[in-house]
Amino acid sequence: MVMWICGRHSPRLLTVEEGGKWRKAVDGRTVVAVSSLGQDMKDSEENKVGSNFKKKSEKSESGIFRSCVGYCQDPKSAIKGTTQQVEIYVRKVFCISKALTQLLLDVDAASQKEEDEQDASGERRTPHVSLDTRLNNRVLDLRTPANQAIFRVRSHIENFFRQYLLALEFDSIHTPKLLARKINGGASVFCLDYIGKDASLAQSAQLHKQMAISSGFTKVFDIGTYFRSERSSTNRHLTEFVTLNVEMELKYHYNEVMDLVDGLFADIFMQVNQSCANQLDAIAKQYPFEPLKFLPNTLRISFERGVQMHEESGEKIEVHFVGSKLRETDMKNDITVEPRRV
After folding, report:
1. Are β-strands 2-7 and 31-33 bridged in parallel, bridged antiparallel, or unpaired?
2. Contact 155, 181 (CB under 8 A)
3. What is the per-residue pLDDT across 130-162, written as a single tens digit (0 to 9) for each?
4. Handedness of CA 264, 267, 270, 273 (dihedral sign)
5. What is the DSSP letter of 59?
6. Strand, coil or helix: what is 320?
7. Could you give the count of Cα atoms lying within 13 Å of 226 in the half-sphere of its Cβ?
8. Cα 38 to Cα 130: distance, rounded to the nearest angstrom
9. CA 218/CA 334 separation, integer angstroms
10. Are 110 and 144 in contact (CB under 8 A)?
């Protein structure tokens, strides 16, 4: 039986679980494309390749993609590294994409945390990978376990955000990113030519969310990318960013917004801890952090109690109000007040 194997890993013997998948895939067929099965295979010390093939491939550089032709067959002698007696007899190996002998970024070095790069005397054991080097070679940098885990956690957070709001009967909308003119204040915009007309990139979804509420949608949310033309001399700046936006009409009191935000964040934090444990461990190995601590129900205090707490700490606060006089019920019940404070 002829088999085509695609991937960056060398062909090897199969474990019990993998052997079962391959047997099922190739049973009764003459030629089988098994690239998807190859992606499921993981490196293991118990899995070895034939000595002749190993001699030819042991000098291969990291990052090379290969295509192999071989036979799926029962081994002539018992395999000691696995209980599943299935092996692939490689006949031909093709180089699909050859990597540079010296990569611009060492993935192993980029996976190390800062403390592990130095020994007791302060000498570096592995080369330090700067942020500029990472960003200039982002494709290689994203191969590190920590970076891949970060992307997967972000994907989960977006899904948790969406599922929580959908369960509360929110509607998902997509607001425009290319606008005819500047419609949001407070930040500079990226201006561009739109087929002979002036246009700009959206700074936020605020206006369009409010338009949706005015149109009869009582609860909406938007996940999208926005742009702000803010000058910066750093490598990390917010000219382009992703936002999770929520807009809803208030039926009785603005505490409804506090209830929503309280439940939303607590649910996201809880689900991240439960569903992303492996990703969090991978991130912590390179970027150590303390586990996030949070209350299922966020602590709330009244404005009056907040002022009292400041005064008890020895800090005297004088609050002057412009406009309507603050009502006593607002002082006792609300964390914020409507009149402007000076």
Report:
1. parallel
2. no
3. 888 888 999 999 999 999 999 999 999 999 999
4. negative
5. T
6. coil
7. 21
8. 33
9. 24
10. yes
How far apart are the C-alpha atoms of 77 and 80, rounded to whole Å? 9
Q: pLDDT means per 10 residues in the chain (342 residues)? A: 42 44 53 45 40 44 69 73 70 78 83 68 69 88 94 97 97 93 68 90 92 95 92 78 94 90 95 95 93 88 86 76 52 46 35
DSSP character for 250? Answer: -
Q: Map tokens 């490196």 to a residue.
A: 43
Q: Where are the domains of the chain?
A: 2-97, 107-141, 145-283, 301-342
Phi-psi region of 219 (alpha: psi -120 to 50; beta: other; left: phi over 0): beta
d(CA 289, CA 286): 9
185 SS3 class: coil
Selecting from 1.10.3660.10, 3.40.1160.10, 3.40.50.150, 3.30.930.10, what CATH number does the domain 145-283 have?
Answer: 3.30.930.10
b/e code 111-137 from CB counts within 10 Å (16+ = b): bbeeeeeeeeeeeeeeeebeeebbeeb
CA dihedral 332, 335, 341, 342 (to 10 degrees): 110
